[in-house]
Amino acid sequence: MEADHRCLLNERNQITDCDLSEQIKAVTKESHVQAENTKVMLAFQRGQLTLQQYKLLLCSLYKIYEALEEELDKNSSHDGVAPIYFPQELARLESIKKDLEHFYGANWKEQLTVPAATLRYAQRLREIGRKHPEYLVAHAYTRYLGDLSGGQVLGRIAQKSLGLKNGEGLSFFSFPAVSSPNLFKQLYRSRMNSITLTELQREGVLQEAVRAFNFNIQVFEELQNLLSTSEETELRQRHKTHSPKMSDAGTDKSLELPSSLVSSSQFLRILLGLAVVLTVGMGVYAF
């Protein structure tokens, strides 16, 4: 990390309101708050994570980072990408693969389950990789700095909630090549601010940053819906299995849970149950 420190001291770029990093922070402020206050992220921070919830989150993170890192690799020499291309320090894909193999086994790819929002997110990343590589900086900034900011905290929450030992299944949260997250984030912002953009390109990057947050919010919401639907189906199946046989007079309505009660129960479970980044997720978005 000494090399990062020297780079930062040598560049000495004073961050101002005109810098790209500050402009992204400003235009995404509202989306930032909205992302942090989704039921999924609020619940994650409360430390009531279940294994199924965590596995579904990893599945979505895999598809997102697969697209992001493939496009960053393809465009690594592009003027809008090269300054913020740090595969050794930041790449998450191999770590996520390791976690998925730990939970699902060698055939983990055959068991991936992701909501439609995740696929839309990945599709957008591939689209801009082809058409507007400079827009990738908005997504890289949103994902990686979010992961660095909240990764250590969320990793400890997941470990405690799931009872995981020796870091197994938690590789996503580990950045072994980054010894000082705060220092590295300063370097990353400095490199971002060094990217030369036309006014039209800059406006496009800022719009893409808002879009990145919106994609993450949609993923969080659809993961919640996926979990809620799965749990409601399981609850109905249990009820059907354990219900006594009814006479010809009809069904015993007293044994049925009112739909409003089931709905509110699932709402509360999600609110209190699911633990960034990716950001992350997916990561806590405290840049």
TrEMBL record:
One of its GO terms (cellular component) is endoplasmic reticulum. The chain crosses the membrane at residues 267-286. GO terms for biological process: heme catabolic process; heme oxidation; response to oxidative stress. It is found in: Endoplasmic reticulum. One of its GO terms (molecular function) is heme binding. It is an enzyme of class 1 (oxidoreductase). Its EC number is 1.14.14.18. SUPFAM superfamilies: Heme oxygenase-like. Residues 231-252 are annotated as: Disordered. Keywords: Endoplasmic reticulum, Heme, Iron, Membrane, Metal-binding, Oxidoreductase, Transmembrane, Transmembrane helix. Belongs to the heme oxygenase family. This is heme oxygenase (biliverdin-producing). The lineage of its organism: Eukaryota, Metazoa, Chordata, Craniata, Vertebrata.
